[in-house]
Amino acid sequence: MTAAGMMALASLALLASGCARDTQNLRLVDLDTSDMSKMQELASELQAEEKRAFLTYLIRHIVTAEHYCGKPLVGADGQGPATVRDAIRLTREREGAEQAAALAAKRTPTQAELNADHWRQLVNQRELLINRQMMLTMQHGEAAAMRLPEWRNLKRDLAQADLKLEKSKPVVFGSERASRSSSMSAAARR
User: Fold this and answer.
1) Is the domain of 79 the same as that of 146?
2) Of these four, 64, 91, 96, 179, which has the most CB atoms within 10 Å of its CB?
3) What total of structural domains would you count in the chain?
């Protein structure tokens, strides 16, 4: 190939590259996002991951979209995307946050969390027993309520609940804190 031919080929290549549009910098307000065939054509100019994110934006994050997710897509500045690049970036950020939240929800609770949950259940059971005692007292008066068979059962169940809570203290709060608490509560009972 001659030098003139190479120069013509180089000029043609430059001309062609100058005609290619910068898809990522296209302003969203200038696009008809409701025309999916045009949007798919536009997305085909993007790299695979960008294409997926942009199509996700079109399907899930535009308020007028049929499968709108229900949460406006905005950045840290509170503004929605202005360009295709912004839509891709914000979609990736949203998807990352949603995946992280889903993983956190799926994770197995720690032993400390399980222990704390068990403690709350024991406390709730004890409170229900106390509430039942209060109801009997209000209905029958204190002296009469104490003579009811149900009162004796409640008193027994309360003692068992207190024992379960006392046994759970070292597991939930650590042995040092629980023993201090036990000695303080024993001193208070004297």
Assistant:
1) no
2) 91
3) 2
Phi, psi of 83 (to 5 degrees): -125, 170
User: Would you say residue 18 lies in a domain?
Assistant: no
Q: What is the pLDDT of residues 91-142, one digit of tens each?
A: 999 999 999 988 888 878 888 889 999 999 999 999 999 999 888 888 888 8
- The per-residue DSSP string of 163-187 comes to HHHHHHHHHHH-HHHHHHHHHHHHH
Inter-residue contact 13 to 39 (CB < 8 Å)? no
In a domain, 30, yes or no: yes
Q: Which amino acid is at 189?
A: R
Q: Angle, to 10 degrees, between the axis of helix 175-189 and the axis of helix 149-173?
A: 140
Looking at 106, 136, 161, which one is the last position of a domain?
106
How far CA 26 is from CA of 9, 23, 73, in Å, comes to 29, 5, 18
Question: Which amino acid belongs to residue 100?
Answer: A
For the beta carbon of residue 64, count every other beta carbon within 10 angstroms.
7
Rounded Cα gap, residues 178 and 182, in angstroms: 6
Which structural domain range is residue 41 located in? 23-106
Res 2 pLDDT > 70 = no
Other residues' Cβ atoms within 10 Å of the Cβ of residue 39:
19
Which residue in the block uniquely carries the two structure tokens 């295709």?
84
